[in-house]
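Hi Q.,

Before the meeting this afternoon, I wanted you to have the S-adenosyl-L-homocysteine prediction in hand. No need to reply - just skim if you have a minute. The sequence and ligand are here:
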Amino acid sequence: MTGTVFSVSLGPGEPELITLKALNVLKSADVIYCPGTALATGGVKSRARDILQALPVDEGKVQVYAVPMSKQREAANEAYDRLCGEILRQVAEGKQIAVTAEGDACFYSSAYYLYERLQAADCPVKMVAGVPAFIAAAAAAGLHIAKQQERLLVIPGDVVVEELLESVVSKRTLVIMKVPLGEAIMRPFMARHPELHYHYFEQVGTPDEFYSTDLSEILRRKFTYFSLLVISAH
Ligand code: SAH
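Predicted structure with the ligand bound:
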């Protein structure tokens, strides 16, 4: 009998935003893997683990794996290869494995790197959908992110270019993830366009949540990785 791997979406931070299906999979899994980042001071920080701690899930089966910074591709690939091997051995023993992801597991998620390796090894993998951060952010601010004929574009900060900002905001709402990666272009653009509406969010659904629509306050802010920006003309 072989087991199954579930790629489980945890939602963006607020424990109640996990789905019932995801919670049931976590409860019945033999091992739950959480991605984390190694700290210079030792230890590993993991937002996925932080979310799990607030849920009725046995902590004893949670394992955090450190993924090297995204720029160190080779080291990251090695970490995924190692973890994939470990998971495949357990699946062969019939174990049910959950691999967690913040927000939704198939939306700009590093869960993808593991998923593609497991699939290539013919391992049964299932995905459990979840609430992505930008949807939770909009809800927290009472924002109807797209209505009627409006269009929406979601991009990561590292693909932001001036022309894109200029051309899209008049026609559609723009959601920018990984804000610091695009700030060199976004900051001057925002300063030149005070007529647009800006919604800046950090750490939605956590005790450190920050939200502002005040352009000068946003521009004074040091952008953090767990932030997103919604720009619209209306
Ligand atoms: N899979 C996630 C996205 C991961 S990519 C999802 O479905 O939302 C990481 C980016 O997600 C961050 O740079 C930030 O833009 C956004 N993000 C994730 N959690 C967030 C949160 N709690 N508050 C604000 N932004 C968040």
